[in-house]
Amino acid sequence: MHPPLTLHRHPMCAEIIEQFQKCHSDHPIAKFFGECTELKIKLDRCFRQEKALKRKANFEQSKKLKERLQALRKETAENES
């Protein structure tokens, strides 16, 4: 199973998504017998890479936010003392 194949949500995988959708429309019956499996595997790999990049970016962003919050707490604690 894969997420919805919307191009605007998966810009890194847009080319593979288009090929996969074309394969499904060109082979309406054969798709059930593995005609598009190779593209599906490529698509899954692309989604994994995309997710890893997003996860890394989110982690970096959360580290920056955590550092800002710790600095703010330290500043607040010093002002209260």
Condensed summary:
This protein is an all-alpha fold.
What is the topology?
Blueprint (H helix, E strand, L loop, with lengths): L13 H13 L10 H44 L1
Beta-strand content: under 5%
Distance between the termini: 56 Å
Number of beta strands:
0
- Portion in helices: over 70%
Largest sheet: none
Counting structural domains, the number is 1
Which radius of gyration do the C-alpha atoms yield?
22 Å
- Stretches with pLDDT under 50, minimum 5 residues: none
What is the average of the pLDDT values? 91
The gross shape turns out to be rod-shaped
Key phrases:
mainly alpha, disulfide bond, Cyt_c_biogenesis_Cmc1-like, 2 helices, COX assembly mitochondrial protein, 81 residues, rod-shaped, mitochondrion
Question: How would you describe what is shown here?
Answer:
Belongs to the CMC family. It comes from Theobroma cacao (Cacao). It holds the Pfam family Cmc1. It is found in: Mitochondrion. InterPro entries: Cyt_c_biogenesis_Cmc1-like. With 81 residues, the protein is mainly α. The protein has one domain. 70% of the residues lie in helices and 0% in strands. It is built from two helices and no strands. The longest helix is centred in the C-terminal third of the chain and has 44 residues. It is rod-shaped, with a radius of gyration of 22 Å.
